[in-house]
Amino acid sequence: MATTRQHPIRCPLCEHEQEVALWDVLDIDREPELHERLLKGEINRVTCASCAGSFAVSKPLVYRHLERELMVFLDPVNNGRTLDEVVADFSRTVGNLDQLMPTDVPLPEIHLVIEPGELVERVFLREQQMDARLVEHIKYLMYRRNPEKLPAGQMNLLFNPLDSTPEQLCFMAQNRATGRIEAALHFQRSDYDALAEAFAAEAGPSLLEEQFPGPYFSGRLLVLQDLAEEAAEAEEEG
Ligand SMILES: [Zn+2]
């Protein structure tokens, strides 16, 4: 399976158009060094032949590491598509995956993300054996507790394993407009463990799955949906 293809790309800085090879699939089982390159932000980054400017290309990308039982589909909501359409495309792809997967390996966890930062985060979470839904639940709590410092419309929250300690999980608050990291926020690991235990102890369908049915789930998006609903209710009440 080819993992890169040529694409005509126009430089956002000088409009120069060039053909560049971009990754469609990162097959980490076969090319483990791609993992590091992804973390360094080198994947699907282009240097313009005319102005030497450097920019990232937003395009679909599959991260596949079957040894770690992980597949992440990055599909940016662009080219006039809605999130619903991206989810429908994902469901079709995953529906066909059963036939494509070797039968002698365990089925991987399969994730859908729409931003590159989320892709890297899911890879980190898998490494740390953390539950992605529970992490989104924690982000939801952090957004709701800090609406002024952490407005969900403007700020991403991304798990940072490098600055996490045995006591505290570290999250970076990233300005969505500038990409800049503006703050580090912490969440007690003992609280994470207590929540994980409480959710695991439930009988029947997990509350986490009810909160985040997926296949795309995001604590930030859920906060924005809740805020929109609350604003609509407040308006009805006059
Ligand atoms: Zn250029």
Topology at a glance:
Blueprint: E1 4-10, E2 17-23, E3 25-27, H1 33-39, E4 45-47, E5 54-56, E6 61-65, E7 70-74, H2 83-100, E8 109-113, H3 116-127, H4 132-145, E9 155-159, E10 168-175, E11 181-188, H5 189-200, H6 207-211, H7 219-237
Parallel strand pairs: 3-6, 7-8
Antiparallel strand pairs: 1-2, 4-5, 6-7, 9-10, 10-11
Commentary on this structure:
The protein has 238 residues and is α+β, with helices and mostly antiparallel strands. It folds into two domains: 1-127, no CATH class; 131-238, no CATH class. Helices cover 37% and strands 25% of the residues. It is built from seven helices and eleven strands. The protein has helices spanning 33-39, 83-100, 116-127, 132-145, 189-200, 207-211, 219-237; strands at 4-10, 17-23, 25-27, 45-47, 54-56, 61-65, 70-74, 109-113, 155-159, 168-175, 181-188. The strands form four sheets. Strands 3-6-7-8 form a four-stranded mixed β-sheet, with helices on both faces. Strand 9 (155-159) and strand 10 form a beta hairpin. Helix 4 (132-145) packs across helix 7 (219-237). The protein is globular. The chain starts with a strand and ends with a helix. The mean pLDDT is 93. Bound molecules: zinc ion. Zinc ion is lined by residues 11, 13-14, 16, 48, 50-51, 53.
